[in-house]
């Protein structure tokens, strides 16, 4: 391991994300991995295409820490079709959903680290509602041009670092019962409360880059299949579904990557790797 900030100017070092970092090449894309835990950023230039087989379908992903207890909507309800315009579905070649994601720029999607797969084994779909019925203007991304932003597809707004959210909404196609393995066929969402003292519940594994949200009595949470998806607070992309102990259990909230800690890094990464001026809208 080595510290990529060594020998750099203060300005250059400030552009690196939190923690000590390693850089290497993966599948022809520049990937950055945090030494403390697997956080990876990859560049994606995309174009929308028909729902066909894709040879090289891969998103620009901010890949964040997760564990296997809950690849992780319980207690929520089906959302209005195409109302969550930034929600992405990460799918296998066989069109099977396995993780969520969030569009933050026409060329950039954010998800969790364990959701990443080699380019030829995954694809990213926007404006999806029912996983089993072709009923909307779906977009599948291939390495080419930016996504087409329209009334169905818009990027989420990044938060500012002063935000102190209390009630948020998490969405996804994950299971709707704790011990169920069947994914929801339709996009669902649930309101959850931010736990201000998350370390009391997960004292042994939390970092400053994590936050907790759920319900003190249980019954409302993200769960298997929701991983990598968005936690939206006050209309802004505040968290990434990451991990937790089981799902929807009282006093064991879901754990999310705190997007606010990475905003400057995300913006710098987009600016430095996008030929056009930074414009999330």
From TrEMBL:
InterPro entries: Peptidase_S1_PA, Peptidase_S1_PA_chymotrypsin, Peptidase_S1A, Serine_Proteases_S1, Trypsin_dom, TRYPSIN_HIS, TRYPSIN_SER. GO terms for biological process: proteolysis. It is found in: Secreted, Extracellular space. Its main location: secreted. The keyword RNA-binding does not apply. Pfam families: Trypsin. GO terms for molecular function: serine-type endopeptidase activity. Its EC number is 3.4.21.4. GO terms for cellular component: extracellular space. The keyword Hydrolase applies. It comes from the Eukaryota. It catalyses: Preferential cleavage: Arg-|-Xaa, Lys-|-Xaa. Keywords: Disulfide bond, Hydrolase, Protease, Serine protease. PANTHER family: SI:DKEY-33M11.8-RELATED, TRYPSIN-RELATED. Belongs to the peptidase S1 family. Snake venom subfamily. This is trypsin. It comes from Pleuronectes platessa. The lineage of its organism: Eukaryota, Metazoa, Chordata, Craniata, Vertebrata.
């Amino acid at each position: 391991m080595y510290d990529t900030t060594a020998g750099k100017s203060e300005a250059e070092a400030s552009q690196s994300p939190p923690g000590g970092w390693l850089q290497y090449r993966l599948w022809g894309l520049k990937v950055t991995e945090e030494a403390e835990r697997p956080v990876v950023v990859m560049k994606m230039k995309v174009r929308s295409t028909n729902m066909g087989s894709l040879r090289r379908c891969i998103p620009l992903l901010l890949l964040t820490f997760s564990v296997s207890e809950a690849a992780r909507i319980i207690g929520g309800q089906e959302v209005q079709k195409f109302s969550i315009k930034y929600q992405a579905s990460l799918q296998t070649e066989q069109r099977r959903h396995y993780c969520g994601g969030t569009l933050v720029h026409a060329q950039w999607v954010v998800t969790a680290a364990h959701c990443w797969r080699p380019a030829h084994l995954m694809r990213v779909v926007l404006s999806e509602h029912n996983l089993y019925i072709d009923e909307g203007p779906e977009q599948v991304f291939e390495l080419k041009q930016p996504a087409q932003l329209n009334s169905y597809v818009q990027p989420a707004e990044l938060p500012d670092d002063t935000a102190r959210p209390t009630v948020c909404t998490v969405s996804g196609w994950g299971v709707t019962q704790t011990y169920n393995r069947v994914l929801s066929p339709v996009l669902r969402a649930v309101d959850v409360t931010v736990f201000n003292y998350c370390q009391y519940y997960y004292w042994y594994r939390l970092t400053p880059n994590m936050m907790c949200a759920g319900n003190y009595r249980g019954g409302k949470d993200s769960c298997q299949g929701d991983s990598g998806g968005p936690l939206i607070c006050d209309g802004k992309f505040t968290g990434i579904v990451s991990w937790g102990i089981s799902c929807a259990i009282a006093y064991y909230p879901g754990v999310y990557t705190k997007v606010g800690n990475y905003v400057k890094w995300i913006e710098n990464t987009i600016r430095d790797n996008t030929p056009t001026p930074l414009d999330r809208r």
